[in-house]
Amino acid sequence: MCSATFRSGEFAKYQQEAAVKEPCDRHPEVRFITDPYQRRIVHGNLIGKQGQGFEIAMCNLNDYRFNINNSSLNAAQARIHNPGEHLKVRKQCDKSLDQFQI
């Protein structure tokens, strides 16, 4: 059971500081833009309590691990049952997969 708690809106103030990058073959990833020379964090900007960051991250990972596995299994099952659409949509080297020689 997770003991790390924080309000749901606490991440909202950091949304403007995040850069979203969408790789061509994976899900979007978010990287927070910070000043490398600024090592101190204002106490009011902390999420949770001081020293609790790793625990919060691990709790979130554990909460989403089940959802990530289900999403992956559902996507794999869909590809097995209907490969044709995936071959037309999925691109590699600027060509759809159905254009490659089998």
UniProtKB/TrEMBL annotation:
A molecular-function term among this protein's GO annotations: oxidoreductase activity, acting on the CH-CH group of donors
Identification of the protein by name: Uncharacterized protein
GO CC annotation, single: mitochondrion
Gene3D superfamilies: Butyryl-CoA Dehydrogenase, subunit A, domain 2, Butyryl-CoA Dehydrogenase, subunit A, domain 3
Top-rank lineage group of the source organism: Eukaryota
InterPro entries given in the database record: Acyl-CoA_Oxase/DH_mid-dom_sf, AcylCo_DH-like_C, Mito_Isobutyryl-CoADH
Entry keywords, A to Z: FAD, Flavoprotein
Cofactor: FAD
